[in-house]
Design a protein that fits this description.
Number of helices: 8
InterPro entries: CBASS_pafABC_assoc_protein, HTH_11, WH-like_DNA-bd_sf, WH_DNA-bd_sf, WYL_dom
Pfam families: HTH_11, WYL
CATH topology of the largest domain: SH3 type barrels
Radius of gyration: 24 Å
Protein name: YafY family transcriptional regulator
CATH class of the largest domain: Mainly Beta
Domain WYL: 138-203
Domain Helix-turn-helix type: 6-60
């Protein structure tokens, strides 16, 4: 567990208790040393978390409103904007998680921050992201995560249909449209497929393996090199 995650969970544990909990109990819970817990407590106190107590007695958070998740105004604005983008532009499952995150963030916002959030200058539109694209997005996301091939019926920019078997590697939002980056078995090379031009897709049970020259990072490196060369 990373330190940031441990600190976050530590705050939640202390907030949820009526009686103090000792460093030994916390150390056993997080499977770390008591010395680590003492350092964590000190870090949280230095950052403004009102933790009361001392070594050998135990710790508890005073009945005092905490800064929401210890983020400042700009950080919360960025998180809310990002969550709204995910809610509007991705598949139904991720969208649901994003909406839940927005509700949790807004639930702990102080009044003055809620007012700022309500009057944010940013508007996230969900136009051009219909149910068909959202369903494709969810199926492709699952295929990417499990490394399974996809049979795809696709129309190019000229409306010419084609059937492909592809190995999906990543979904990229270029602005306005989602694009699937995949390795095309027909062309034996990377290809880009816009979700709004997909007609039908079938998830197969054929697994593929990513390697040094077949993955999303490799594709992006090739794109960067291509544009760098054009700019020379």
């Amino acid at each position: 567990m990373h330190k940031s995650e441990r600190l976050f969970q530590l705050v939640n544990i202390l907030k949820g208790r009526r009686l103090a909990i000792t460093a030994k109990q916390l150390a056993e819970r997080f499977e770390v040393s008591e010395r680590t817990i003492y350092r964590d407590i000190e870090s949280l106190q230095d950052s403004g978390v009102p933790i009361q107590g001392e070594a050998g007695i135990g710790y508890i958070i005073d009945d005092h409103p905490l800064p929401p998740m210890m983020f400042n105004v700009d950080e919360l604005t960025a998180l809310l904007l990002g969550s709204k983008m995910v809610s509007a532009w991705t598949d139904p499952t991720l969208s649901g998680h994003a909406k839940a995150a927005i509700e949790k963030i807004e639930a702990v916002l102080p009044a003055h921050l809620k007012q700022q959030s309500d009057h944010s200058p940013y508007l996230v539109s969900s136009f051009n992201h219909g149910k068909k694209q959202q369903d494709f997005s969810e199926s492709l996301r699952n295929a990417i995560e499990t490394c399974v091939s996809v049979e795809l019926q696709y129309c190019d920019v000229n409306g010419t249909p084609s059937n492909r078997v592809i190995e999906p590697l990543g979904l990229v939002y270029w602005g306005g449209k989602w694009t699937l980056i995949a390795f095309c078995l027909l062309r034996q090379d990377y290809r880009e497929f816009r979700l709004d031009r997909m007609q039908h897709l079938t998830i197969t049970n054929i697994h593929f393996v990513k390697h040094q020259e077949k993955n999303l990072d490799h594709y992006l490196a090739l794109i960067r090199a291509k544009y760098a060369k054009q700019c020379d």
